[in-house]
Structures
1.
Amino acid sequence: MSDFFSLLVEEFPQVRSGLWVTLQATVLGALLAGVLAFALGLMAGSRLLLARGFSRVVVEFFRGTSLYIQLFWLYYAMPLVTGYELAPVACGVVAFGLNYGAYGAEVVRGAINSVPRAQYEAAIALNLSPSRRLWKVILPQAWVQMIPSFTNLLIQLLKCTPLLWLLSAADLMTVVQTLRDRTGETLAAYLTLLAVYFVLAYALTMLMNLLERSAKRRLGLATGASSLFKSRSASTAALGGTR
Amino acid sequence: MATEPLPLQKTAAPAPQDAVPAAGSTGEPLVRFEKVVKRYGDHVVLDQLDFTVDRGEHVTLIGPSGSGKTTILRLLMTLEKVSDGVIWVNGSPLSHVRTPGGGLKPAGEKELRESRKKIGMVFQQFNLFPNMKVLQNITEAPISVLGKGREEAETRARELLELVGLSDKVDAHPSQLSGGQQQRVAIARALAMEPEILLLDEVTSALDPELVAGVLELLGDIARNTDITMLCVTHEMNFARDVSEKVLMFDAGRVVESGTPEKIFSDPSHERTREFLNAVL
Amino acid sequence: MNDGFDWDAVRESLPLLLEGFRVTLLATVLGTLVAAVLGLAVAVAGRAPSRFVTVPVRVVTEFVRSTPLLVQLVGAAALFNTVEPLYIGITVLGVHYAAYTSEVYRAGIDGVPKGQWEACRALSLPPRRTWQAVILPQAVRNVLPALGNYAISMFKETPFLAVITVQEMVFEARKYGADHFAYTEVFTLAGLIFLVASYPTSLLMRKLEKRLGH
């Protein structure tokens, strides 16, 4: 076994804690992003001009200014402006959440718009209240449409977590880099890191596929077993331009 | 279709007079269109339309496509707003509220929801909610709008499903049903809200030909056994003949002729009616 | 801690940032070019008759697509430490995004009606002409907006190049910020430059999408 891999085994507790930091940032960032996506996406469909305008501005702002800049702004500039400092991982969580929340808001908005108008009219004909229409009729149908795009965004978010290394958070990339520096085995180190990310991405995709399957089942749509193993859907990645 | 345990007795509907404030409502038709105009941009769909429907009447609207028939149902269901004029239901303005000065202003969501209570609609494309099973499609609105208990709503839903001949589909998803079955569920769903007025918008147009007869038969049963006032837009002239007492012939946003089915079908007095009937019959 | 926005720092750093912005644009344009060409090649290779071609192509694309750009960049820069960082940056950006654009092309190719392939066979067109004259012209037209959107994404990811010492805008911003302790000004400025450049472009893409009837 090469030096790098023996060191990897030796320093396993460190690697595990790096992995834990990375996963934490991913999951918490995704949760924040999800909350923001629904809040901003629902606001975008509001009857109030102010709410629509607010959502538009926030979404365009966080989509338009690069994630990288947002992260650095939070880490370097915010303490200077506010006197308040966030821990590196918290910076990551907030930046990932804001950035992907903005992209997610577009997904939510698009999915709600994709529910046929007739469904909305049928809900009116049954005299359902506006909130009932949204929660019982429109959102459950839109949800199925959202999941593939959310899967893409989640993987994008995961792929941004190595940025934490730049804030000297002890994430997976930071740990692997130190192991590389100690052994000088560049290729082995980076290939290992890429492989771990690949496995994480695949695992997250499968989890999201499970979610999609249960959502489809609720609509009475057929779902084969193979649907769990499919990779992220190409068409939504490609044509949605959701990045 | 077995009509025997029909849960739709004439007595089940409340006596109409009780529901109406007495003042000024005597002799008032259930639905009255008063100079109703509907425009989409420059395109005039309904042009100063006047007509009335009496309580318990079954009215069929016929006419060439684009003549504004469906728009009338959509206006009554408050899916669209009138451009001008007023629709009166039970002596109250449907999508307006009276101002203290005696004038009318457009209604808000609250008033609209009050107006919709009396009215149900069945759509051409069924529009069942795919995220709910058959039973919940029917019980959702009675529970959340009428405030019924779950058990009561479900019992009623099962009765209605029996009426439409789909007792075995209680737990099915809408996507597992044929078009005809979906439309029967949609009819049950509308009836569960105990409407005084039922709007039927080309309810057989999207069905395979062999499924049409069953749905029409069901609607005939409902017409005969209930007090529900029905407005149907249809291309099924048989249905117009068998079920309705009054036929309105539309052309270019106006009523060109109205009368009993016998009169309209056998002895139309208007040239446009003759042309239309020749084309469809 | 400073008390406010230092406009002198803005004035002083703006020319430096704009200097760096030229590198940012250069990397975006060349990176997009690599991604557009390589992506097309990958998409066509993915349609090859032999599984010995299609399966490896699929695996590699999936791998590149699912792993972080930053790790790819840092790894490549460490392995090829004699090569000019800008070239490495452009290549890695191009390859990473080719994994995405190939999917775009694939969807575009799948979107060409089956009848078009059959018509080509009926006319006994050789494969080369089938692709060149019939399939690709139809497919590429449909994918233009999506390619444009990826170009915008890539633009917003060019700051990653700063990590491997490419002297683009964010590199300059960090340097100025560290030297003058003026992080607030430079990062705000850099963010606004990104916004000003990317927002109109994405509006343009949306217009194009509508025009092409997506």
Note: The two ends of chain A are 40 Å apart (CA to CA).
2.
Amino acid sequence: MRTAAVLSALRRDPALAISAGLVVIFVIIAVFGPWIAPQDPNQINPGSNYLPPSGDFWFGTDRSGRDLFSRLIVGTRMALLGAFAVVVIDVGLGTVYGLIAGYIGGRVDNIMMRIGDILLSFPALIMGVLFVAIFGPGLIPVVVGLALVYMPTAARVVRSQARIQTKEQYVEAGRLLGYSPLRIALRHVLPNCLSQIIVQASIVLAYAVVDLAALSFLGLGVQPPTPDWGNMLAEAQKSMLLAPWLAIFPALAIIILVLAWNVFGARLRYHLDPTERR
Amino acid sequence: MSDPLLNVEGLTTVYRVGGREFAALNDVSLTCQAGERLGVVGESGSGKSVLALSLLNIIRAPGRITAGRVVFADQDILHLRRRELRRVRGGGMSLIFQDAAASLTPVYPVGVQLGEIIRTHLSVTRAEAARQSVQLLGQVGIPEPERRLRAFPSELSGGMKQRVAIAMALASEPSLLIADDPTSAVDVTIQAQILELLRHLVDERQLALIYISHDFRVVSTICERLLILYAGGIVEQGDAPSVFNAPRHPYTDALLACSPSVEEYRFPFATLPGNPPNPRDDPIVGCQFHPRCPRALDVCARETPHEESPTAGHSYRCWSPLDAPGRGSSAAASAP
Amino acid sequence: MIAQRLIAFIPIIIAVSILIFLALRVVPGDPVTVLTAGSPVPAEVKEQLRREFDLDKPLTVQFWNWAKNAVQGDFGISLKTREPVTELLGETLPITLTILIGGLILSMLISVPLGVIAALRQGRLSDQLIIGATLVTLSVPVFTAGILAIIVFSFWLGWLPPFGRGEGFGWDRVSHLLMPWCVLGLAMTAAQTNTLRAGMIDVLNREYILAAEARGLSPIAVIRHGFRTAMVPVVNILGVQFGYMIVGTVLVDFVFGMGGIGQLLVDAVNQRDYPVVQAILVCIAVAFTATTLLVDIVASRLDPRYAD
């Protein structure tokens, strides 16, 4: 039923179809990047540095003569993998946090949610910076820092379901039958908040792509020479006048991915949720 | 008879509900002379508020006026340019809304809102507008008017809000005041005060008044002429004593039976069995009232009744009217 | 109400300060070791440095000393440059605030008319174009927009200087600030426009708007009657957005080489210059809390019913 609705929406809504196509392409590039890239992204070509886009180097070459196109292709993996990691940690932490708060309830619940509010009000990127200040630069501290800031939203969704379910299922039947909280969580709580969590996660994914690229751009995330859109932009900034293509292509890559994802999400919610329509 | 102040002919306002058109106001004609006090009575859902808004040509989507003419002071309201229409709205013709609390902008002090209306319609200075605002608030019976100018609507009681709303309607010195059930949202003790205030103001300023209400009793105490509205159509109209004492339309009769009379205060209120036509249902053929009518004949379900006017100043649309006074058995009629 | 909020404000600031302080200290990596890494420094010198920075004392004493000085406006000295942190802040904060406030004003100048128009033309082409445009600005990260702007407006068109903060109060300054303002402002318009649009649509359906029309007020006056109420959620969004604004300012500062607090922060993090990182983060936390307070005050000014 749902699948049929999605398919017919795809046919009728060009914005949805195009954005969905782009997202699929990005995912394919992320998965198969190293096999798609015409060159090793770190292969230095002496004498062909700062070449503008051409038949040999589609997007030109950088300071060390590395092929920008190959670096962008391989960098896609970093962008999506990092963002995906943020979402997974975010949802995982949020689920556990929300379940605990929801089951215990009362004072503990209150305090946990208050802490969540404080985390939530923290600008994600600043949290990333703080984590780098503590643990040093790199993808992992940045990912964990971001996930921590996004976590409370997922936690809130899970918690409210957990509160409802503890009242309905757990107290009445579940406890009599000796079901464990874990079983109730898996059977009743999570299935009920799945769709909300998916929507949340889809929004977080876009933010995470941008924040990760921004942190790498600031030199705090993925470190060179590992190709990443953010650190490529940072490097390109140093030679923007000489080789503007080095900045333009990574910038466009980020914009297109985020735009495609946002349009895809917005149109999909529009088709699946009638209340979005006015 | 001179040209009436307000002349409405065949006014029809249609709403789109669930993909289907529904006439909230169906072929309504009425006149109102300068200084005349006209009462419009109907249940909720009979099109009372739509009538008030249609007279000002201020119907919003999904509604629209599809037919008819509204002539006010020799101006064709339905075909005026926007600027001129604005001059009429709140200028010549002003409207008191049913729910005063909802009709006042919550974020501006009362004085600002009053002054704005005065300055929109009368070319006066800011200081003069402020002076008139104080005067108006005093006239509608608000104590310490200077101080109240700075009050926000939320700081006033329900009765005070309705008084402010009346002051706003009067601010532009209109010649016709339309009151859309202004006492339905306030409690009973305030109702009487508001009613008395309106009567006093209308007398003093010799305003024409169209008083719209669900409450027969209220309307008959203030109005000279009555119009009974059912399902967007006028089913009976005439001089107040005549309609009140000798209703001819069964609906009017039923409405009267529902209103608590002075001598016999029924509690809880008796209500009419059934409901007015639902916009979502199939349209009713014939007389709109026939499904609820105790006197319905076969013809009522086939044909819309014509307007009958056996006596001057009293007309009705019914195939099966109640008997005229003298022969009849209607509730309030006196025996010969 | 304001006094109460101000009092509630103090424990939040203290808590956040302690958290930041602990976070930066508990974790491995003594700043002195980090600082002197790579160069052969005698143990006595390290010891002396530790004493100088209070690192030999217990954490509670360290925090107490730091807080005592911070309250008096002294955030210690930078590990890297040996300059007082307060001085560094004094050099960078004004330009950062200029970017922030200018961007905010610009974003409001753009989003207010767009939000109102979109609400008035709800469902029509202009509304859909505005919604589409906000989705695009929402999807273009500040730093990519900044870099593309530099390429286009500085290198290709040659209209505006690409880097630096400019001098004085004339065109030179404005020309340097124009792109940062626009980039930051545009990034913030999307949320504001959408919030104002939704608020306006909601308000325009209220009876008092119909009543204002029935009283013969001009269209502009009628919109004004709804505008204040519709602005309350926008002001609230500004409070939420403040975090993004700070992030945006940090990035814009970095992209355009303005020498503001963003550059200072990133440099300090890279060099593990803890006093500087700590001072900036605490400043951000204070500004953040102050903003939520300010938001409440402005909102209650806009709408007398606004409480809590």
Note: The two ends of chain C are 9 Å apart (CA to CA).
